[in-house]
Amino acid sequence: MPKLTVEGVGSFEVAEGKRLVQALVEDAGTDQLHACGGMARCTTCRVQFTDGEPPKMTAAERDTLAAREISDEGVRLSCQIQCDHDMSVKLISRLEGSGRKDQGSPVADTIQPEPVWVEKDV
Prior knowledge:
By secondary structure, this protein is an alpha+beta fold. 14% of the residues lie in helices and 26% in strands. The strands form 3 sheets. A 5-stranded mixed sheet has the order 2-1-8-4-6, with helices on one face. A two-stranded antiparallel sheet has the order 3-7. A two-stranded antiparallel ribbon has the order 5-9. The termini are far apart. Keywords: FAD, Flavoprotein. This is Na(+)-translocating NADH-quinone reductase subunit F. It comes from Stieleria magnilauensis.
């Protein structure tokens, strides 16, 4: 089982293939935002990788990050990442202090929209 380490929270074993956004909420018990329900539309589920950043991303993630001009090193959409290896992240988009009433809509167990995998631009 992959190990997810969340800065300031702890380390957790998560089910192979689980969506990172779900692991952050369900396994790590964080208040990670996901306003669009994990559809790669809103960017509220952003995290910053400190270790183990996946080398691939979905085309939806790439396009959404580009459209929102988000290019900080290691910043990715947790709704578009599967937990298939050990990774460490820093939470940068949380319910606390956001002014939102809740974390977001329910998230499907599989990556949405249907993933088209691309190499992450370096």
